[in-house]
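new request in #modeling-help
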Amino acid sequence: MNMTADAPLLAADGVPLAVKLKRAERRKKLRAALLVAPLAVFLLATFILPIALLLYRSVENPEVPAMLPKTVSALAGWQGQGLPDEAALGVFVQELTAAKDNKAMVGNAAKRLNMEISGYRSLLTKTVRAMPLDPAAGPLREQFVNIDERWAEADYWRVLRHQDSRYTGFYLQSSLDIKRGADDSLHMAGDDEAIYLKIFGRTLWMSAVVTLFCFLLGYPLAYWLVNLPTRKSNLLMIVVLLPFWTSVLVRVAAWIVLLQNEGLINGALMAMGFVDSPVQLAFNRIGVYIAMVHILLPFMILPVFSVMKAIPPTYMRAAVSLGSHPIPAFWKVYFPQTVAGVGAGALLVFIMSIGYYITPALLGGPDDQMVSYYVAFFTNNTVNWGMAAALGSLLLIATMALYTLYARIVGANRLSLG
Amino acid sequence: MKKMIQLAAVAAVASVFAGQAVARDLTVVSFGGANKEAQVAAFYQPFEKATGQKVVGVDYNGEVAKVKAMVEAGKVTWDVVEVESPEVLRGCEEGVYEKIDPKLIGGKAAFLPGTVSECGVGIFVWSTAIAYNADKLKTGPTSWADFWDVKKFPGKRGLRKGAKYTLEFALLADGVKPADVYKVLGTKAGVDRAFKKLDQLKANIQWWEAGAQPPQFLASGDVVMSSAYNGRIDAAQKEGKNLKIVWNGSIWDIDSWVIPKGSPNKEQALKFVQFASKPENQKTYSHKIAYGPTNKSAVGMIDPKVLPTLPTAPANLNGALGINVQFWVDHGEELEERFNAWAAK
Amino acid sequence: MSVASPDTDVLVSFRGVQKSYDGENLIVKHLDLDIRRGEFLTLLGPSGSGKTTCLMMLAGFETPTAGEIRLDGKLLNRVPPHKRNIGMVFQNYALFPHMTVGENLAYPLKIRKLPAAEVDAKVKRALGMVKLDKFANRYPGQMSGGQQQRVALARALVFEPQLVLMDEPLGALDKQLREHMQLEIKHIHENLGVTVVYVTHDQSEALTMSDRVAVFDKGEIQQIDPAETLYEAPVNSFVAGFIGESNAISGTIEHVDGDFCQARLTGGGSVSARAVCVRQAGQPTTLSIRPERVMLGERAVGCANRFDATIAEFIYLGDHLRLRLDFAGNSGFMVKVPVPEVDPAWQVGNRLSIGWRAEDLRALDPLAA
């Protein structure tokens, strides 16, 4: 074959080799994509989509705009003093009348407004029940005040005017203890009402404590397991994993039995004469820590163990032979090599702790509850999806921020599950 | 032979699909515990016997959000639900429940006033009162002021976790008259006053959530006294526990039947509500657990020995107050959040 | 070949050392060993022979069950490993992966609290010694196996220990690199004059590098000698078989006459041989001869021992040819023939006369069948 430097290489059938190669590669890529397609669909449906919905719900504000779309735009011209003008009130009456038979819509809007001013719920439902108003029977302003004198207060109109968008920062603001004042300015909530910042702080703090204890208890255990003969360490590993085989609920219940005032531990302490009256172990922070550390310990041990397993004992021997006392040798030589496992374990434990619900709910007092408790509170008790979603979103963001921080400091590639 | 196998296979497959198509059993949701046991005996079993319709009982702790979620998703798996009175009103306003025609149960007039509404039919009158273990306290408390007095009665107290009842009790302990409680609580100053009163007791409170907890706490000595549902204390007394109820300052409420909107078993659910509202069945219920009937005809049927244990007994209503449903519908969310903030501190 | 140095000053001595892990079996049965100052001693033996255990006892990672070990006259038994001041090179290099090469080398110096400038100078010099001057800032993971091994070597030497232990340090390298490193280690040893105790199961490695080789088997030293002696004058069948290649022929002693003896072969015929492990007539023996000491055809004429054998197989190996012969009932008798000496007429099945000198055949202890 006659080949010059710049003529493309041809395959046997005359097609340039580069083109053929590209085609083959594309086929390969397509096949690989087909293989992961079910997983991708699964992840999209069960992971990405719910998260997107969660984030969306935390800013969604459909209730009032759906019921009173024209009223809120008519209120845009209102000065913020006294009642709105008759024209705006007329639109309001129209829309209230139209909504009269749609109980769900009125109920949702009333609920949303009640979040802004307590009592707005009954005000709105009462007003809807009084519809329609006869414009001939006098000025609408008077008629509204006759239905309920609260309509004379500008606050109620101000809140309504503010419902002009299908999106709101209300839930996210509330989740950060930010309130909107009468002059529409944002300010931090007072001591009586501020709660969530403290809860976020507590959640992070408690998770950090749990992680620290998991590390303090799990690291030596993992080290011990690694240095045992395989048969023994396998057996003990099963013991470590044993808690996984019972449900969290069962384990928490077991801890309550053990820790309560008349429980086994207090009974034993008192029988042995260490204490005279029961030590409060359950329904406070101590109980939560004990149970959470117990439940999450395997998540620390497993990655640390598998990382340690891969470290040959010769490193320590080498360090000692170079003249280092075994203890500093451990910290300087062995420990740094397990940092990846410790990082993975700590991250795992920490992130799982952040989302813990059942253990603090059952074993803690009201001041031991973490963010998840309030998410559950809003979904189960007050049916406030917006707040639940906002708290969840902030938790998600906090977790991701922490992960990013971790990746910056330790390096994500140094994360090893063994 | 081959044909028989084919036939059997077809039949098997068909029965699987048929099983899905046939309406499921009637699902009735209640607060569980002693209350549910009484309901099973007074309502579920007689209803099954009378109609042949199987009833499945489910427990919950009053999380009406689940009902709302079901209704919104269009997948209603609960057919009849026992709810507290503010929930009847709130859910009805939000269109979560089916309307119930009062004619079905013999008209509103046959029931105590305020127990039958657009969406709900009252099941029983119950009360939250102070309870204590007479084995451990020789002289018990007589009022909420005593409940707050940790010098006279040292030890922990149980209270239901939440603003409802707790704020009322705090005001009663602070000397507010029962008739004025909601008037005071309707103002910002009144709420502050209630929380301030709660601050005094906070360190000594052990919170409970399920109705079965207070008798347990009292029996185990975890608390010296507790707020409790009177029926649960009555049930514990029947089991031989020496627990006592203080009716002074108790708050009575009505639990009602509601039917979640879109229940596929609506017909059966209505029949169940109708059946359970009959005076003879309400009488049986009140004999099983110390909650008062809502059907006026049932009141006369009750064993005179049982009567004084019911919240509806005149002696027990002395110094008691009824819950203000409209107040809690309007202010519940705000106060519960404020309560959360306070409790979390 | 450098023979043992005349300097007999002993640096390390093992006296009556025993080691057992389970209290029932001795992994080291009884060890008396003197290691001379400045020598390169190799502990050679199959796995499980006790050589590594000896090294670990010397390093301090294992404690002798009985007996004593002295370093420079000082009893070592109770000295913890980090105070022994013995350098060590491990098979998997054991370079700290989270430290750069420079930090690895500085590690033992910093522990000894040397001033920073001195640390730098020593690290630089050590890196120069192993020709890795430019690699101080690399991490071990970024280097080839051979480079890592050199770093490990430098690290074991950088704090100037009087004794360096090497535990199969070249085991993980490929053949070519291994041979290259053998020479490099040897040269470093020669230049520094440090005492080296080297453990390997590779006999060619042992022969290449050592001043003396201690051959271990079953927890005992079978023979300790310079390489040449080991090869040419193995003291028993194990050493003869373990070091290099040898043909083992079983027989019975007919009579012993001073350094030599006469033996009857089990497969027929009688030979004269050097008496090594035999004392009297009637003793069973294994006779050992190196394949390259066997003469063939014309060359066999005039040898003290002469036989006829049948060619069973040719194995061509480039620089030489190996012949497998059937001889005296022994079908695995090997002979090495330099290529120029090969007779092109030879064919499988041919009869061939073979012969050797009596002093090349050694009458040793009988091998267990």
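bot summary: Confidence is low (pLDDT under 50) at residues 1-7 of chain C.
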